[in-house]
Structures are given as C-alpha cells and as structure tokens.
Amino acid sequence: MEKRIYPQAIESIVTPEPYGRRNFDDARAAVAALQDLYSRNTGFLRESFAELAASGDSSKRYRAFYPEVGVTTTSFTSVDSRQAYGHMPTPGHFSTTITRPDLFERYLTEQLQLIMRNHGVPVTVSESETPIPLHFAFLEGTHVDGSAAERIKRPIRDLFDVPDLDGTDDHIANGTLEIGLGDPRPLAVFTAQRIDYSLHRLTHYTATSPEHFQNFVLFTNYQFYIDEFCAQAREKMANGGEGYAEFVEPGNTVTRAGETQPGEGMVPLRLPQMPAYHLKKANHGGITMVNIGVGPSNAKTITDHIAVLRPHAWVMLGHCAGLRNTQALGDYVLAHAYVREDHVLDDDLPVWVPIPPLAEIQVALQEAVAEVTGLSGYDLKRIMRTGTVATIDNRNWELRDQRGPVQRLSQSRAIALDMESATIAANGFRFRVPYGTLLCVSDKPLHGELKLPGMATEFYKRQVAQHLTIGIRAMEKLAEMPMERLHSRKLRSFSETAFQ
C-alpha cells in the first residue's frame, strides 16, 4: 500500500501590524478610522493571496480581522423617550464588528453621532477578534483565475479564514442571543460577517451592486410592474431626472438624468432570479424596485438580504385574490393586519407575534391612493378597502378541500389572499424596517370571478400603471418625512440595539 504523506501543521500565522484602540469624539473621524483599518486588513488578505498564488508557498496561514466600534456608558440617565434608536437601553459596554464602511459611511456616521449626542461619550475603534473570510476581502467584480488556486498546494481553508455560518445567524434580530458573562452587548442588529454574506447574495440574486440600492424599496410579484417602473424611470431620465439622478438596471447599467440610453454597465445574458431596478437620489434617498417572483420563500430570501442595508421602508405592491363579494377587479387592498400561513418565518418569528400596522406607512399609502385616483372620503371606499391580508404557501389552495381554509379566512375577517405580503411585513417587523402593503384585486376565486382570455392584458395595462404610480408617490411621501418619525418604536424590543 502506498504510504500517505500528510502536510505538516502550520504554526506560523501572519497578520497585519496590531492596531491600537483609539477613542473618538467626532463621528466622521471614527468612520474614517474604520475605513482605513478595513482597507488595510482586506488589502493584506488580497495581497497575501496573490503572493501565495504566485509562489505556491503554503507554509504560513494568513489572517486579518474586522474592525470593531464600541461604546461604554455608565449612567441610567434617560434619553428622549420619543427616539426609537440612537441610545443604549442600560449602562454597559456595547460593540459591533464593521464591514464595508465605505458603503455604510453615511449610516455609520449618523448612528455614532446620535450615540455621542444622547450619551455624551466617545466611541472606540479597534480590531475585533472576528477574522475576515478571504472570500469577503475581494473587491466586487474580482475574477480569481482557477489556475492560481491550482498552484497552491494546500486547501484554501488551511491558509485563510473562510465564511463561518456560526457567525452569520440572526440571533440578535430574533432576540434569542445569549450574552456570556462579561461579553459586550450588541450595538447593531447585524454582525460584519452576516452583512458580507448578504451583500454577496444581493449581487447574485439581483444582478446589481449593493451600492445602488436605495432606502425606499418596492417589492412586486409581477413583471408587469417592473416594465412600468422602467418606462416611468426612463421617461424621468429623458426629462432631466425629475429629482432623480440615475436609473440603474441589472448588469449595473446606468442611465443618467438627461440621457436616453445607459452610459455604462453591461446587460446580463439572462435576468437573475430577483432582478432589481434603482431610481437613485443622493444619499440613497431614491426608490429600488425588486421583482421577487411568486411565493413566501422568495419574499423571505430577498428581505433577509436587503435588511442589512438598513432601508427606511419597504412596501409590497402586487396582485391578490379578493375574498369579498363586494370587491371588484382592480380594487385596492391596504393591509392593516396579516394572517400568516406562509410558514417560512415560523422558526424566526412565532405566529403568535402580532405584526402591527405602522401609521406613517398606512397614511402615506392612503394619501397616495387619494392623490392619484382623485377620490377622497367616502368615495375612496369604493375602490380601496382596509383590512386583513392572508398569506399562504400553497398557490393552488382552491384545489383542496376548501372548508378549512375558507372557514379560517372568514373567521380572520380577511379581505384578500396572496403569497408574499405577510412574509415581507413580518420580516420588516423582525429586522426593524418599516413595512406596508398595497395590493390590487386581480381575481375572486371564491366567487367564480376569474379573468377571461384577453381581459387580463387589458386589466394589466389599465391598472398596473396607476398602482405603481401610487406606490412611487407613497415612497416619495415617506422620503420627505423626518426619519426619526418614520422609524417606529413599535419595532423595538425590551433590550434593543442602539443602531437603527
């Protein structure tokens, strides 16, 4: 038998020079330090990999750590009780690991400014004890030649840290994190490695870079809405932008205000699973729209990842089954409660947790419907109904014994049925992202009212444009609102993170 030769254990770990802890009284200076540290450490990993690929020397292990920002408070002094975030619930030491401070520069600066203002304490920038996986150190769009990996004699995992699923969970968001004695409490909902994981997934699922995502997000389950969104966005660009600076489509194709064609990027050969489109304003103040397709699994997947960008609001625009005989095709449904039979979030957010309506979102949607349709007061009730939306995970529920589902729907007072809205709202609740739902009745299966051939095309042409215009107007209204008013205290738990 041939004798196997095992590689020798690696005893030498190469790291960048140690980074001393630094205190800051200025948020911008602290974020600049985080950027310098992150750039240095990720650059070290990239350079080490390039040298290793060139030499083939595999006698050393390479490691660099995420930056960390921390803050310590010693007083129980109360802060402004109207604020939903920007303060610690109790005295103690709080910290979080940081990734992509270039992408999150404005967000980090705002969060640290609030903490300094509310508690009068400095923040500390240091290196954490969490290694940066090699995969997350590469710049977006980097191509690693397969032959380079072949020249390395040992498995990459022997030489570099790789993504660790133990560090990418949602225990903080779910409220299930168990903090050990003497350990710091979390400062943010997401850790750096969890964020990096989602940033890479976003690029994969949407074919656009995370940097293009805006703070106001529309989700839809129909391509018709995307087609209309693109048409309106291109018209705005051709007319000088109408307040927007750029329109970005899959492949990171960019059409700038005043232009009629993309000036950069490359259209992908095929659309990704959940393509995203971005009508951009400065400071991410514009609107992103994502076609999530059909079903609660897609709805959970995309919101799991967009949540790490800390958007200010997301809203579901799509079609639904009307459950009341008094509804007509084309009527609107403004959800104020949800029946959750989607099941994809049962392990993260128990079904007994209520998902409350958020007044700011509800008012913006209702006002937008009134403005676009020209109706108000009692007349508005003819085309819009507020009530409970049921979300299920079985598209063909009508083909089974209907007695159980119909009875539950009736008992819940549900007025509409779909497959995504409750999932998006529940994940908004879970991740502290303000949420809402405005649906359009496209059929009434309980009453035998289905669209006949030819009716569907005409219905979509007529209704989708108006529905999307309402959604865009609602998001513009929310963008005009002070953020401290939009982010609701309803979404905050007993012991909450300071970061929004």
Could you walk me through the main structural features you see in this protein, from its secondary elements to its overall organization?
The termini are far apart. It is built from 15 helices and 17 strands. It has a five-stranded mixed β-sheet with strand order 2-6-4-5-7. Strands 13-16-15-14-17 form a five-stranded mixed β-barrel, surrounded by four helices. The mean pLDDT is about 90. With about 500 residues, it is of the alpha/beta class. Helix 9 (about 295-305) runs parallel beside helix 13 and helix 10 (about 360-375) packs across helix 14 (about 455-480). The chain has helices spanning about 25-55, 105-120, 135, 145-150, 155-160, 170-175, 190-205, 225-240, 295-305, 360-375, 375-380, 405-410, 420-430, 455-480, 485, and strands at about 10-15, 20-25, 60, 65-75, 90-95, 125-130, 185, 215-220, 245-250, 255, 275-280, 285-290, 315-320, 330-340, 385-390, 415-420, 435-445. The protein is globular and about 75 Å long.
